[in-house]
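Anyone else keep sequences and C-alpha cells together like this?

Example one:
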Amino acid sequence: MNKKEVAEIKKNFSSDCGFFTMGKVLSALIDPEKNIVYQETKLSHLLDSEDLELIMENLKKALSGTLGKNLREYPFPKEQYEETPEGEELSPQKFLYALLKSRLEDDEQNTAFLQRIAEKIEYVSSFAVFAAHCTYSVMKKNKNDDIDEDNTLDYNFILTAICPVELRTDGLIVDDEKKIGRKPNSDRIIQPPTDGFLFPVFSERAPDINAVMYYTKKPKDPNVSVVEDFLGCEFVFTANTEKEVFQNILSKTLGEDLDYGLITGVNEKLAEFVDSSTNETEPAQVDSAKLSSVLWECGVSQEKLEYLPQVFENATEGKTLTAANLIDRKTTVETEGITVNIGKDCTDKVQVSTVGGRKCIVIALDESVSVNGLPANV
C-alpha cells in the first residue's frame, strides 16, 4: 500500500461514508496470564452508539502515522501458501483469509483467532482486542480515467487494534454528588492501540491477500512478536535501526573525514530529498546510488565512494533505507557535560575552530542571546 491508498481507506473509514459499511465487531479482553476473560461479537449497528464511536476511533488509529515508520506492509513468506499437513495449524495467511471469509460470524473461529493472539503476541499486561469486518465499495475508473459509478469493487477487510489496559487503583475522584474522595474500586482503562494490522492490503485499489499492513504506535520499539510470531512475516528494520545502520555506513565509508560540515551537509541533502517527495505515493528510499550521489554533492572524493556499494550491501543485506528515518530536523552537538541543539536553518552559524590551541565549537551571535530564559549581554 502506498500513501495514497492508506489515506483513501482512512478517509472513508467512517459511518458517514456512503461507500463504507462495518459488519460484525469482535471485542475481547486478555489478561497477563493469556486467558481470554471476555469475548463478544456484535453487529456494529447493535452496539451502543458511544461504544461504537470509541471502538471505531481505536480501529482508525491502527491506520494512522507515517508509512515506513508506524505503518509497514509485510508480504507473507512463500511457505505460508504450501499445503497444510493434517493436524497442523493453518499458516497465518491462510488463517486470516479464513477469518476474512467468515466475516467474523463464526464464534469458534473468532475464539481461535483470539487464542492465537494470546499465545503468540507478547504483552506484559492485560490488553483489549478490537476487530471488525468492513467493506469499502471501490468506484473504478474508465478508460478516460474518470470515475465510473456503474463499476464498483467490494474491498472486504479485517482491521484489528490491540490496546493495553491500564489498571488504576489509587487517586482521588469527584463523585456524582461533586464530593472529592478516593476511588471506591479499581478502574481498567483501555489505552489507544500500540499495535494493529489490516488484512488484506489495499493495493492498486483492489484487495491483495498476499500481504498485511502492520501498525505500531512506537516505530522505534515495535512489538516484533506481532510480525514474526503472529503474522509469520520476516521483520524488517525499525526506524531506529535504519538510522543506526545508516550511521554505521557513513562511519565505515568516511572514517576520519566525518566532520561537522559533512554530517550536517548530508543531513540537509537528505532532508531536501524527503521534502521533495512529500506528494509522492511511496516513501522516499535511499539506496547505494542515492547515497553516493548525496555524498558526492557534499564533497566526498571518488576514492572514498568506491567502497560505498559493498559497505551498503553488507549493512542492509540489499535492502533500501527509508529516507525520513535517517534525518534529524535539528542538529545536536554533544561533548562531555554539554549539549547544543541547533535548528535546521542555523547549522551555518556553528563552526569547529581552534582557539588558544584547543578545538572549540564557535557559535556566531548574530541575534540577541538569552540564558535560562533571560536576555544576556555578551
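And example two:
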Amino acid sequence: MTLFGDPTYWLPVAFAALMGVSILIYVVLDGFDLGVGILFPFSNPEQKDRMIASIGPFWDANETWLVLAIGLLLVAFPAAHGAILTALYLPVAIMLIGLILRGVAFEFRAKAPPAHKPYWDRAFFAGSLMTGLSQGFMLGLYIMGLEWTVATVGFSMLTALCLTAAYGFIGACWLMIKTEGALQGKAAGWARKGLWGVVGGLLAVSLASPLVSPRIFEKWFALPEIFFLAPLPIFSALLLGVLHLSLKNLPDAADRWTWIPFAATTALFGLAFAGLAYSFYPYVVPEKLTIYEAASAPESLFIILVGALFVLPVIAAYSVLAYTVFRGKATELRYE
C-alpha cells in the first residue's frame, strides 16, 4: 500500500478515465468538423467557403485528442492496444486514409485553380465520410465484442450510418452558432433531419449492448443497479426533447439561443459515453481483458501519469485559447 492506496487498482482506473475523457472530447470536437465535411454536398460554393472558415482554426487541434487517446491506450494498456487494433485493422486503415485525404483536401482547396476546387471539395467530403463511417463501424464491432460475423458486421454497418448521421447533426448545430443568414437557416434544417440519426444510434446501441453480454444485461436490469442507471435514459430523453423543441424555433431573430442544440448534443454524447463506460467496466476488451489485466506495470504507469499531467493541461489550454480567440461568427474565407 502507498500513500494513494493500491497503485495496481487506481492507476489503471486513472488511465482508463483519462483515455475515456480524451475520446469523448474528440467525438464532440472533431465530430462537428467531420460533420461539416459530411454536409458539404448540400451547400453551394460560397457556403462551402464559409463552412470551411467555421472550422479552419480548430480542426487540427481537435484531432490531437484522438492521438492522445490512442497514445494512452498504447502506453497504459499495451495488451489491449494489440488486441483492439488487430481486430479493427481494416476500419482503422480506412479511417487513417480518410483523415489524410481530408487534411490534404483542406489545404489544397485553398490553392487550387477555380476549375479544380470542386474536386478538392469532393475529396474533403469523401475523407470526412470515410472517417465517420469507419469510426461508427469500429464502435459497433467493439460493442459486439470485436467478433467478425455476419450479424456483428451488419450491426456495425448500422452504427456506422448512425454515428455518421450524428456527426452531421452536431456539425449542423456548430454551423448554427458560427454562421448567419441563409446558411444558418439551412444548417437548422439539416439538424432537424439529422436528429433522427442520433435517435436511431442511441436506440441501436442501447438495445444491442445488454443482448450481447449477459453481464451487461445483469448490470442494467438487476436490483438495485437499475435505479443507479435510470437517470441516464431519463436525462437522455429530456435532452432529445430539448433538441426537438429548440430546433423547431431556431434560428431566432435575435440569434441568442443557437448555442442550445450544440450544448444539448454535447451533454447527450456525454450521457451515452457514460452509459457505455458503466456497461463495459472493468473490461477494456469486451468480455476478454480487464483494465487491470491489460495495464502496464505500476512503476511504468506512474511515470507516464506524471508526463500526462503535464501534456493534458497544455492540450486543453491550446484548445481553450483557439476557441476563445476565434469566437463569434465565421467571417469571409480569405487566404491572403
